[in-house]
Specification:
The protein is mostly helical. The protein has helices at residues 9-24, 30-51, 57-61, 65-77. It contains four helices and no strands.
Length: 84
């Protein structure tokens, strides 16, 4: 499964290293890695859409609690379970 992130190359490389670490060092299952990847892609798309551009590291650094709550609120509005 290939997940596309609406992010610049630097962010994509960081995500790739993190997922490699989770899979190879922490031994997370393929299904867990896929779930994490999809959730992360959805969050990145949420932020990038607000910025109307690909996500960059500065955008992530500027995330606040309000950013995360807005994302969770949008998911709830779409009837996506909080545990998802």
């Amino acid at each position: 499964m290939t997940v596309t992130y609406q992010a610049d190359k630097q962010i994509q490389e960081i995500i790739c290293r993190w997922l490699d670490w989770l899979g190879n060092i922490r031994r997370y299952s393929k299904h867990t890695l896929e779930a994490y990847s999809l959730d992360l892609a959805e969050f990145i798309t949420f932020i990038a859409t607000q910025k109307n551009q690909d996500l960059c590291l500065e955008d992530l650094q500027n995330c606040t609690v309000r950013t995360f709550r807005s994302f969770l609120s949008e998911r709830a509005h779409k009837h996506i379970d909080k545990n998802s």
